[in-house]
Amino acid sequence: MVTIDAIRTMWWREVRAENRAMAELDFVQVRDALIASGGIRKTSPWRVPTAAEVLASRAKGSPEGSKFLTTEEHQVFVKQRRLQRAGVQKMQDAARPPALPPIDGIRYLRMLGRMHLALAPKWYLEVGTFTGRSLSKVDCNFVAVDPQFRLRSPLSHPNARQMHLFQQTSDDFLNRSLPNAMRLNLIVHFWTGYNILRYSCGTSSMPSG
Fold first, then answer.
1. pLDDT given for residue 41 in this prediction
2. What's the rounded mean pLDDT across residues 24-32?
3. Is this model's pTM higher than 0.70 or not?
4. Can you give the residue range of the structural domain that contains 156?
5. Which of 11, 26, 44, 160 is the right S-S partner for 68, CB 3.0 to 4.6 Å?
6. How many domains does the chain contain in total?
7. Is there a single domain that holds both residue 42 and residue 66?
8. Quick check: 11 and 67 in contact, CB under 8 A?
9. How many CB atoms lie within 10 A of CB 87?
10. How far, in Å, CA of 17 to CA of 119, rounded?
């Protein structure tokens, strides 16, 4: 088996999402390689396609009027199209009124850490812990609630003597576990936005007592 690399040019249609290219061969190079490998003789009949035949072959199977680009030209074309689309998207985003006003100020995790430093609570309640990133900012006894913990942050704090993890929904915690947890004198509470929205909309109610 003989490998012959006789590609002269790769041609791409002028389409942004095109992922197929056509290879134009150097037929003189193919003939020389075949002769060198003993595949054909020097006297064997051989005809190199004309330029018109190459163009006709390239256009066959493509929509009429298709324009073809070399690999380098196609890369430039794709980059330009992406920049154009990004520019159009940027203009559309600028013209579209924001759904919510921009939020400025200190990030909530840093604010949570500062609150704990200032208040130094003995107990802390967090509903919606998930990975434990916010819980890692506290240094006291805590009660954490989440229906499916995916803890990735360390929870071993020097001043935490008791750490209670309730793997249940906030509804179950409020209706069953919170009355007992309230006896712990929970000073600082942290609820994720989703839980705040649900209870502010009245989908569930805080237990009394």
1. 92
2. 90
3. no
4. 108-200
5. 11
6. 2
7. yes
8. no
9. 10
10. 58
